[in-house]
Fold these 2 entries.
Entry 1:
Amino acid sequence: MIILLKQNANPQQEQNLEKWLASQGIAIHRSVGENNTILGLVGDTTTIDIDLLLALDCVENVKRIQEPYKKANRKFHPDDTVIEIPTKNGDPVVIGGGTFNIIAGPCSVESEEQICEVAKAVKQSGATLLRGGAFKPRTSPYAFQGMKGEGIRLLSLAKEMTGLPVVTEVMDPSQLELFEDMDIIQIGARNMQNFELLKEVGRQDKPVLLKRGLANTLQELLMSAEYIMAGGNEKVILCERGIRTFETATRNTLDLSAIPLLHKITHLPVVVDPSHACGISSLVHPMSLAAAACGADGLEIEVHNNPAKALCDGPQALTPEAFDKLVKQLNAILPNRYTGE
Amino acid sequence: MIILLKQNANPQQEQNLEKWLASQGIAIHRSVGENNTILGLVGDTTTIDIDLLLALDCVENVKRIQEPYKKANRKFHPDDTVIEIPTKNGDPVVIGGGTFNIIAGPCSVESEEQICEVAKAVKQSGATLLRGGAFKPRTSPYAFQGMKGEGIRLLSLAKEMTGLPVVTEVMDPSQLELFEDMDIIQIGARNMQNFELLKEVGRQDKPVLLKRGLANTLQELLMSAEYIMAGGNEKVILCERGIRTFETATRNTLDLSAIPLLHKITHLPVVVDPSHACGISSLVHPMSLAAAACGADGLEIEVHNNPAKALCDGPQALTPEAFDKLVKQLNAILPNRYTGE
Amino acid sequence: MIILLKQNANPQQEQNLEKWLASQGIAIHRSVGENNTILGLVGDTTTIDIDLLLALDCVENVKRIQEPYKKANRKFHPDDTVIEIPTKNGDPVVIGGGTFNIIAGPCSVESEEQICEVAKAVKQSGATLLRGGAFKPRTSPYAFQGMKGEGIRLLSLAKEMTGLPVVTEVMDPSQLELFEDMDIIQIGARNMQNFELLKEVGRQDKPVLLKRGLANTLQELLMSAEYIMAGGNEKVILCERGIRTFETATRNTLDLSAIPLLHKITHLPVVVDPSHACGISSLVHPMSLAAAACGADGLEIEVHNNPAKALCDGPQALTPEAFDKLVKQLNAILPNRYTGE
Amino acid sequence: MIILLKQNANPQQEQNLEKWLASQGIAIHRSVGENNTILGLVGDTTTIDIDLLLALDCVENVKRIQEPYKKANRKFHPDDTVIEIPTKNGDPVVIGGGTFNIIAGPCSVESEEQICEVAKAVKQSGATLLRGGAFKPRTSPYAFQGMKGEGIRLLSLAKEMTGLPVVTEVMDPSQLELFEDMDIIQIGARNMQNFELLKEVGRQDKPVLLKRGLANTLQELLMSAEYIMAGGNEKVILCERGIRTFETATRNTLDLSAIPLLHKITHLPVVVDPSHACGISSLVHPMSLAAAACGADGLEIEVHNNPAKALCDGPQALTPEAFDKLVKQLNAILPNRYTGE
């Protein structure tokens, strides 16, 4: 971290600052230029609040030069994190380290018939994990909020029937007691900085799929991963699902450059959710191919089964047939995808 | 709500759509043009998911024409919401309906001495409510997370001493049991769409100060207010505190046009937090004047007491002296501020 | 276009509005609901200014239901635009309609040796067009502004030597007289809404490569293409090159979902510039693969030749060796890329 | 400027970098830490391209510590720029240095009657300059593009009649020959980085009102001012007119914190255009008061005269009566506005 002092900084304030930094275990390299004095901070600056320094009367500018995350940082952990999820027939699902996994299923669990049919269909096409929402974050209090506990029970049934491990979202620590049979806990985009929830899943012994918030930088995503890892749970899977921009033609803007960039700076696996990002079902297929091509470790895709009953073809979801076609084209592209410099 | 059907829409899908709409209690005005058919939906469309419709094969476009919020909507509640907060000496603090309140205090409660000194100082200058954080949302797991229960106790002490009602932030439903003596529950920007927390404060009998999320539209802010109000708690105060944009010269971009716009579309009071929005203490004074001029119902301002001890002057916070100077200039501007068309 | 009138609209204003619409050749479908009256406009609404209507006292809301562009609209021109660029050895370069072209070369033309060496190298690797800047838009007036006329002359030399057609940027109508031997005129992102320049290139008989502005929607991009096409020049190639968002880890955010979406709504070819979007050379390779996978009609890539002389490896540019490696992997992925629903 | 080298930087590349920096007249302070080497650059770094450095193999990070603009920088020119515009009756209009000016008039010049009536009305209410568009930048090629030369002639007439100096927009250097009688040349938001146009107005002997681009940072605004000033024309007036964000409730988001921030970092006057920023006429009044309260040097406001004829009340424009009411309230607020720390 570099601190640029003001030209006419009050010497007393400057001394206070240097004392306080020393009390935090930070050594200081002082470099006096023609117009300005620069303090180079040496030591662990991850706990230093940059906004606090910026607000000091004697400080002109502060620049962080090293990342504020440690456990998620590839510099300190050069090898890919590899997460194994046991399945009942013995062969675990392996996420990270060069594998490619497809998490598929409906947005919401709606009935036993629905979740079981979709689960069977996506398994047959090549999905390796089942997704389905039991607790649903909805912008409107008047919208369907999910089947809750009953939805979790139906996901267990579908898992029992197909052998697919299950990914499902938690919205509040109090719901976690129902998650015993669930395999991956999903943190939704709106909860990416729900720090109390992050701390709680950090105490669980289950992989966490952490979605990037709509307006969060990659550094903030890694800081939220760091919350979970600091609690002892290092099995974190990151998920790019689109960011909020001025463009209204798509629901959000899928930031695929995040994939190779995250792979450079962190060892955690990165998957992509093209369904929520775009909000347009016809974009799911091409954006899935693009995500695979630039090196994603997997995809999370919405698949819905019953177009006639479910009001045509459902929001942003593929039919099982469209999903099957997508997996075939993905399999053709995967051997030539990007795998690092 | 208006649905534009595709030129060659499948008649079966169209029938499914119309049946489903009818099942939701929605009447349909069908208008057949040269190229397109338009369905005008009549009835309560607040529960209709616009994304669901947009994803249908037979639908070209959907436009919402009425607001999806009801309880927060000024159309249905033309009179300003006025919130009274009792104080121990009898005269309640009144928020909304033409009053102007200043909520002031430190970002975090740090000690009894600190919170009590600041409370006394801001009261003397003209603050009508005390703020102070006991539970602190921090981007980094390694940063100070607040004094928690002990911080709440110190806020009670400062309230007892000064008579100022207290505003403090909750981060998780489990913390609410400590809030008995607190007067206004603050929901921070990162929790604006923590729907489980919104439902919980909707069951409380205390005013809620709801901060706009960094990447949330005004409509989403009102939908989150609607969550709280739908639970039975109609005492909601909205707070503009800056949105995330491409500009990096300020921490966030304070959206002051939100003030007169919110006053048009909702009856809830609106306050402004210039300290967090800008992240630069020298901008707090001018932006407070601007907020007052365009009609804000109040301000939430960070004030810190002990510059020497507390590492110079603290982040984005005013000293008690600077705060006093600001209140004097505010009082000069208030008689001529905007009060509606 | 749909106009929702206010509940208590002034009948005189409403009549004025209807008369004015009729004078513009617009027929009106009037639909009276319980609370509101809706006017459905039938006819060519491309010239109607939506902001003008929104500002009327009697109008509550206006929604455009059809696109304001015609010549660029796939609805009216279902077949792909295919642009042929003659080359001196007879076989034209064909852009659009299922082909894939790579435009490669240095950011700025710096010397005869540089541009000719890069041109030879990229041709050998498989580039089909040469890029190079003679007029450079630079944020700072103190930065190098390009070789101007001399740069154009050197591009002609490199074209003569390699047979590669040349793409180069124009910044002002007065420069066009120098462009006789250039093959494609590039309009940079900052000039996407320089309407006088668009009108001028609309009068040229040369293909135009139109880059999306940093803060422009896809609809605005198509409106700018419409400016060029309305002038008589229908040979427009669109280019996605990243948009400005809150994320600072990359220079801009590459919006790849724009590719399949543009292919749905317009018949114009779409290429991607991953070099400028990301600003980080290590991201060029993976993002090029992703762009190809989701159906781009080509790429524009910066290649620099002389790392030792040119201050290591140049900004965001690949070396000829890295470019060669990229083209090989692109060729492996192209047979399985997305080609439409 | 600070350069952080990579841990295992290639010594040859590092030498190349240091040689090149020396050739640019930059001295280097080398500071070797435990893990990294930091180069502190001393000298005029305004011409150094930060992106170029960031792209070097041997560079981990680069941070600019001083501003890249000089002529616009308050550090080097502490006194306010004050611009005098002569009027025919002798008393010049003075912009900057503590004055407050209101530029008012219609969006487009439409007829002699219109511009003269509006000019008389706004003068009587207290406007000190007249605005009116003769060349209009329009998103659609099918929309009205302005009266052009005839519009300029009518502005001259209105100036002759009222004595008000005139502000009008230029879109292309070729139009400037018509501007002899115009008093301030306006550069619109979309042309803020039309560098050829900036260079051209930099050669004029007339004040320039430079509007901030929809997606441009304050630093980029000052770099564009620097383009004009570097050409010899130091009479630049900056104008905040809203930035593009995710919020769609207003056309753009008016960034009022730009006012006090610009006043800190530059000596140039800053005015605010609330009409274009919001796109909603009812917000013009409150946002004008807010702009004045936080220290703006003036306002640019759209006023339209003939509501009945001009399709009710026109887009985002005030009637002369509403404008008169606004000026009265502004005059009440001005004595207590922010005037600096």
Note: Chain D touches chain C through 57 residues (CB under 8 Å).
Entry 2:
Amino acid sequence: MTNWVYSFGCGETQSLDIDRDRLGGKGASLAEMARMGLPVPPGLTIISDVCQHFYVHAKGFPDGLKQEIEAGLRAIEAATGRQFGGAETPLLLSVRSGSRVSMPGMMDTVLNLGLNDETVKALAADTGDERFAWDSYRRFIQMYADVVLGLDQEFFEEILEDRMSELGYAYETQLSADELKDIVSEYEKLLDEELGESFPQDPCEQLWGAISAVFSSWTSARATAYRALHDIPFDWGTAVNIQAMVFGNLGNDSATGVAFTRNPSTGEKALYGEFLLNAQGEDVVAGIRTPQSITEAGRIASGAEKPSLEKLMPRAFSELVTVAARLERHYGDLQDMEFTIERGTLWMLQTRNGKRAAGAAMKIAMDMADEGLISRDEAIIRVDPATLDQMLHPTISPDFKANPVGSGLPASPGAVTGEIVFSAEEAISAHAEGRKVILVRTETSPEDIHGMTAAEGVLTTRGGMTSHAAVVARGMGVPCVTGAGNMRVDRFDNILHGVGGVLMHAGDLVTIDGSTGRVLKGAVPTQKPALSDDFQRLMGWADAARRMKVRTNADTPGDARTAREFGAEGIGLCRTEHMFFEGDRIKTMRRMILAEDEAGRRAALDQLLPMQRADFEEIFAIMHGLPVTIRLLDPPLHEFLPKNEEEREEVARALDMETSLLKQRVEALYEFNPMLGHRGCRLAISFPEIAEMQARAIFEAAVAAARLTGEAVVPEIMVPLVSLRSELEYVKGRIDGIAGTVMRESGMTLTYRVGTMIELPRAALRAHEIAEEAAFFSLGTNDLTQTTFGLSRDDAPGFLGAYQKKGILERDPFMSLDFDGVGELMKLATERGRMAKPDLQIGICGEHGGDPISIRFCETLALDYVSCSPFRVPTARLAAAQASIREREDPASGKAVATA
Amino acid sequence: MTNWVYSFGCGETQSLDIDRDRLGGKGASLAEMARMGLPVPPGLTIISDVCQHFYVHAKGFPDGLKQEIEAGLRAIEAATGRQFGGAETPLLLSVRSGSRVSMPGMMDTVLNLGLNDETVKALAADTGDERFAWDSYRRFIQMYADVVLGLDQEFFEEILEDRMSELGYAYETQLSADELKDIVSEYEKLLDEELGESFPQDPCEQLWGAISAVFSSWTSARATAYRALHDIPFDWGTAVNIQAMVFGNLGNDSATGVAFTRNPSTGEKALYGEFLLNAQGEDVVAGIRTPQSITEAGRIASGAEKPSLEKLMPRAFSELVTVAARLERHYGDLQDMEFTIERGTLWMLQTRNGKRAAGAAMKIAMDMADEGLISRDEAIIRVDPATLDQMLHPTISPDFKANPVGSGLPASPGAVTGEIVFSAEEAISAHAEGRKVILVRTETSPEDIHGMTAAEGVLTTRGGMTSHAAVVARGMGVPCVTGAGNMRVDRFDNILHGVGGVLMHAGDLVTIDGSTGRVLKGAVPTQKPALSDDFQRLMGWADAARRMKVRTNADTPGDARTAREFGAEGIGLCRTEHMFFEGDRIKTMRRMILAEDEAGRRAALDQLLPMQRADFEEIFAIMHGLPVTIRLLDPPLHEFLPKNEEEREEVARALDMETSLLKQRVEALYEFNPMLGHRGCRLAISFPEIAEMQARAIFEAAVAAARLTGEAVVPEIMVPLVSLRSELEYVKGRIDGIAGTVMRESGMTLTYRVGTMIELPRAALRAHEIAEEAAFFSLGTNDLTQTTFGLSRDDAPGFLGAYQKKGILERDPFMSLDFDGVGELMKLATERGRMAKPDLQIGICGEHGGDPISIRFCETLALDYVSCSPFRVPTARLAAAQASIREREDPASGKAVATA
């Protein structure tokens, strides 16, 4: 019985006894293919346990490893009829790393191992191709010196290039066997000089050098950084795969290539791939020669002239087609395969699940489910929810004659129009006032992130497809054009210069098309994208699979309509503050805020009532009986007042008020920390008349909408920023009073529910008390994150950059939930709330409600719904379905929060 | 066996079988005195269960009550030889309420119950004093009509006064029996007219009326409000005491009075009290006649001429002395007794623990412990820690010739000097800059509370000893003069007008003496109060009894010195930010903040280093080896920058910088929510060079102070505002680096400890992770309260008033810990921190560290120390001792936090 080394393709495939994690991805796939009887060059895998041993014992190897490897080599020799280091039919080997997950920074491959000054001659004799043998030897020395001995490739390239220019050659293929022999001599001399030792002629020494190099690469700087970033434990280690060489460069009946079982860009169900005739693996990567299409259909589609593999080697091709089909069926997923054809014989070198484009992922998953290859659940899991909202953004109407004022890269899809703003701060404050803006920057930095969230779109004049702006905007699903080099931002005068001398100022309307990279002046007609059948079907499957409902955060009838089209099952958060900024309302709002007494406030509120009622009526009508959660006025009142001198004078005139008095009133409302100030339910407690007006507007609108649609409206009124049970009790009392009045006045019985945001740590901790007054909880994770971390979302961008640079914080907790801190409070809130009231409805309405990782966490808490912005609704539907499936199959994957 | 009614003084004292809570305080003391064989008029107690029944059953009485009361009355009749309603020797009764705790708003007493048109004659015959009998009847009708029938006393007073002025009498005593009969007739006529029914002649009807009135008074508005305020459960209810009348108004061998077993003002061990000759209880309360001293010594001390009880009735006096001594010994505390002497015979009507002045409380407790009456633990418990710091404030030097510019009431003791500020905001910002100010207001309101905390003293021109300013300042231990009516605040020009036309402007120095009420212009020499021996001994006992250490929050050498004198055992919080405001340092600090790059910052920091080092050196030397916890720079940098245009220009000139550039830099540092912004350890992560400079100053100072004092200094460096373990890890790494450098440079081995504030909810939740990096935790309950409630301490005063008015919040959570919310996080932090590191040192440094209720809670968490401001140190020592004793005796009294 063996301990460390497992053979494959040498008769019995020993490595099947060992679990995949210890064999590594590559070793496991080779073993599996060998077991299936597919043509795999015989080989052995040194399992990852040896890597652990290597590091625990100061880079030493375990007892018995040597004997086991020798036994393995003898099996390969037996299977191939060749001898490792043999002077007649030498066995050559490839040595490759292979850890549990694919990881950059690991040693890749050493090919042709076993060649030396003797065996190279035997290889020449054996293959009848002296040039081939010496070229292989040259490549081997170069590769080995690089990855095992640590000598820079450039030295060798220099020798090679010098010799070729002396000879006047353009391609390496022009070098003769003798010329290659000379080059090998020069290589060996170089090694002597640089390392003070000669190239190892002993194949066993070569082999142990390569094995050590693989293990050593586990601690390369790049691998270490990658592990840290992805939480990969050090002690997983890597396996080593040692395999008999096969040659794709033994003439025009040999080839090497890569194939996908389906098209990874489009998802089309057809073998797809490229190959090079008479070449070794690294030639494909080097990109010196243009690869040829494997299939004839692929060749025609690409308009290429060089013949396809299908045409050139029909027998090997047909074998590849069969192998591909078997592998895809076996693994139940798109396969990405490496193969070599040696003198007409197909050999499989690797197979793994293939990466694919977002659209292709959906098509492949749906097709495979239709073909019965995978279950519907599996198809749902296979699609990344984050990619969905990219498919939902509007595009510019095709019949519109666009005359661009600039163009850049299509960094994040979607066409949007907004006012130009030149700073993140302006974007945030404009957003707070309900204005739609495009953030225009030379380039963006982490400081701009919250401005980007607040903007409809982002335009930069510098940076590529992977610039900060592009990466972040794609992540957010915000349309973005980057690197519009024919435009210029003048921050001094706040002007955007477009082509043809066009000038655009802050506040001017601009349209960007993140799908094409075009920039257009003014507003432009857009149209919604046609959603594919696959998309609609996937949503249907997701809806059937998920437990949590998906609602939307919608403040306007427009948002509500969009969200319903995207499948929202209600409104989880309707913020009322934006309504007070619209048109002339702000004037009345200011009159209310600046009133001397309650009577004055009530007079202004009476004017606001019909406007609020109309807002709610329209939203109720659109939602047609679906639940609508309306939050009472939340921001501090000073947010509605003029900020600068000029505005103050204007407002004073409009309100017929002394400017000095107005200034005094504005200053009296000043707060050091508005986030922790006079807002939320604190307003309703100081000025109950405001909450009463809002409650009246809601109830009267519910009566009207119910009469209009015939569907009973069950409004949910949400009291924000509660930390004490008594706060909710007080405000609920006022709301109940108004409900009674409206029912009497209308003669209609209303069902309604009063609940609260859980957005402060104290509310989470005292959830059992608060639940006694609440019909529902909505977890307000934005504010809960702010207070749990003591971190202002608006101010954090100024220093969180340093945090991420120094590795202190991995994820932005405003993007994805902090499971450990905020998550524990959410857990306490749900547990304690339900303890007090088992039928308590609990949802989430923070931005995290549209984030798949956070949605997975919400499923572990068994929330009733998540609520997110309209364009995120499909993402949330899919993510909620995945969460349901994963919670069923693997509850631990939701990252359970230990309450210690 | 009886269920509802228990007799005392009628042979067997039944009421001893029943617990004190159901008998009420008065009933219990009467039963106890009867059991001791003291002279108590026989009576019965209706237990408080009947009150519950009364409310549960719509003001009905339980079955059997009537029979039980009748049986009780028969026992009283038997004991007294009188008959209730009897025409010959009528039994008269007093009816008094008596709940578990003394409570305002309850019905007090109905005396002489049982008198009617018949029994009044019998009483006259029986006592041989017709005038007495009719006067008693008149009083009874008047009292009964008031408290039982609800008819206003004024009606009766009017009749009485009219008749007396007709007769030309000055005193009621001049009225003859016949004249009193006429008045009784007029009273009865009045009742007929006002109530439409005649005065009840049936003694039983009178009795049931009085019982109902007692129970009904349980829901009087005042009683209800009081219960709500003090969390007294409604269902406690009140008992009713019914007792045979004894008369202090049966001639000059009768008297009624109140006595204390010791002097409640000074604590002196001598009977103390007052009496009126020939009078009934309510005459003492009415204050028409001046009471006489009970003891001869008391008479002499007060310079009164009227003879003492000791002289007038030596036998009754000597009996009272004996009774008083027995009662004090029995109850082990100062007794407050009511007594009546009827024709030379002493009757005890009530005894209870007496209220006493703060200084007296200490003396009495110490004396009683010395006398062996109570244990030392009990003596410690008996002194209210909140009263201690009033004894510690400085007074004006007696040899200073004070020329007051105003005078008011001595509302809160202590003499202090500071700059005049006219608003709470100015007080707060001046305090933040380390300036000492006196807050001068016409009167204060809850909005001013945080300004009052920030001020050295408070002066108001309106309001009395119980005005808002007076009450709050006393609670805080802040010196205060209220109602300085000869001064005037002109808020328009910000001028304080003093007597003699003196004008004082904002920023001028003023001194107030809260012990005398004087206001003085400029600074005035003050001296420390001499601490009494009792004070010092009590502190010694407390130190022996307490488990928790007491440290101080001290930022300056002066604070450190004061605190050591008051017994501080270390510094729990040394804030470093104030140090940067001093003198010229602010200029260098600003240069550091405004530097373009790290090099510029380091240059300025190099200049700050020697100043910081000198600060720390002095503090270390003063603390002489005691632990000193120094917090790294905490506030956001913009707090150090100029706030207005004028200041900005000045600073720009001083720093040789363009004003526009400076303005730009200041604006760039602006934060929406500074409390949640770029501060605490976030500064150390963005600009590690600042933390490094501070660490170097600390270590170099520790080396120097150790060489100076010969005591090793073990500095504790505290990293503020940590929410992630990685933050602490990063900053600790920098500190450790500097420690190594300083040790190499100085050739001295330093022991030091790095720890963190736990002041954010996330830090409390992740305490087990953070503890792995921390040598100690300091619970920063100010910020923890802010973040747990989402409540800015600076902004809350604007709306917390409405909260308290509406009964939504009982205690200000910034004054006394919120056990339920903040307390649970503290509990989690200590449990989880110790789980990870059992020897983790944990203290508290928020303002709660000086609040007795909060200190009690800290003991339940077994914290290692509390830290508070220097003047609070004695309070904290005593409170910590009480907490230790109570935790031993009654762990539940600390209010265990349920983790649900």
Note: Chain A touches chain B through 54 residues (CB under 8 Å).
